[in-house]
Design a protein that fits this description.
With 354 residues, the protein is α/β, with parallel strands linked by helices. The protein folds into two domains: 4-103, Enolase-like, domain 1; 119-341, TIM Barrel. It is built from eleven helices and 13 strands. Strands 5-6-7-8-9-10-11 form a seven-stranded parallel sheet. Helix 3 runs parallel beside helix 4 (157-170) and helix 7 (241-251) packs parallel to helix 9 (266-278).
Length: 354
């Protein structure tokens, strides 16, 4: 039986501007891929981030259109032909897996997708003014989150330290974990001193303190930092399994941050998981600001990894409108309600923004 492929582009508005050290996002462009085989339709999402994704390219829509044309002509694209387009690889993998499982957007069976076991997740705090960030943090803690991820690096460093100190005075380390994400904002020569300044605040970890591929600086920080180093952007664009293995073995970061949209899909991330476990390196799964369709896929997969620490999956309420979802946040945990998809039987329903 032949496959038919098509996609639709959406622009989702952030409820609040999404600030990082790379700039501020007001809107997010996403592409929903639909592949059908007979009456069964599988969904995937490919949503590259401009300035971060390997495939954050102005010609992305043209490339995706060509991929769909290829499928419609009976020619299946291969991973090797899409190495530079990791989010398309993720969408294809997801859509075909969805078809295999009956087109119900339930790709993985687990206690999570049965609605029995919830996933712990961190509360994300985006960059705003220091006072607004403080209010965000308190609101997240009041909502039940026990792990807070704070974007740092774009504001005055002393002001950021004052904010973190203020939080620690109210919420000690035994009650709240604090993760930081610098998105490569620290200069190589200043990074260690800044991490030493932050260390007394009992920081769980810091993601990507320096820019990716600054290997000398990163090697130094992985050895000397008083705060555990997590690799995020450092993983982007590395697809060869031998190269992946050599990097983790040589540098031994404390954690790997796994984002299927940026890293080429679920199987590509599973390679990183296997390597992390081999070298006793921690990891967690994080969304890359996908819509609810992509978040649903990533969350279901994360639940198969027998994770216990908070994941980075609490992003479904960032947009003013989104697709229907079986996911909800409850006291710092992500809950899956399988019955939420039962009432929607058409593709049009599932692709309707609400």
């Amino acid at each position: 039986m032949t496959y038919r492929a098509e996609f639709k582009k959406y622009s989702l508005d952030f409820i609040n501007p999404m600030g990082t050290s790379r700039g501020v996002l007001q809107q997010r462009d996403i592409y929903i891929l639909c592949i059908s085989r007979g009456d069964v339709v599988g969904f995937g999402e490919c949503s590259p981030l401009t300035g971060l994704s390997l495939d954050g390219d102005p010609e992305f829509g043209t490339k995706l259109s060509r991929v769909c044309d290829s499928i419609n002509n009976g020619i299946m694209p291969t991973d090797e032909n899409l190495l530079d387009w990791p989010s398309i690889r993720f969408a294809l993998e997801s859509a075909f897996l969805d078809i295999e499982r009956g087109g119900k957007q339930q790709l993985f069976a687990s206690e999570f997708t049965k609605g029995v076991k919830d996933l712990p997740t961190n509360g994300l705090v985006v960059m705003e003014s220091i006072e607004n960030m403080y209010r965000q943090i308190v609101a997240k803690i009041d909502a039940g989150f026990r792990c807070i991820k704070i974007k740092v690096g774009a504001l005055d460093f002393n002001a950021e330290c004052t904010l973190i100190s203020r939080i620690r005075e109210q919420f000690p380390a035994g009650k709240i974990d604090l993760r930081l994400d610098a998105n490569g904002a620290f200069a190589d020569e200043e990074a260690l001193a800044k991490l030493e300044t932050l260390a007394p605040f009992s920081i769980h970890s810091i993601e990507q303190p320096v820019k990716p591929r600054h290997w000398d600086a990163m090697a130094f920080l992985c050895r000397e930092s008083p705060i555990p180093i997590a690799w995020d952007e450092e993983l982007i664009g590395i697809f060869d399994i031998d190269e992946k293995t050599a990097l983790v073995e040589a540098f031994r970061p404390a954690f790997l941050i796994l984002k299927p949209t940026l890293l080429g899909g679920l199987k590509a991330c599973e390679e990183w998981v296997d390597i992390a476990r081999k070298f006793d390196v921690g990891f967690w799964v994080t969304s890359a600001l996908e819509s609810n369709i992509g978040l649903n896929i990533v969350s279901q997969w994360a639940a198969t990894l027998d994770v216990s620490i908070p994941q980075g999956l609490g992003t479904g309420k960032l947009f003013t409108r989104n697709f229907q979802s079986p996911l909800s946040l409850q006291n710092g945990y992500l809950h899956y309600s399988p019955e939420k998809f039962a009432a929607s039987s058409t593709v049009q329903d599932k692709l309707q923004l609400r």
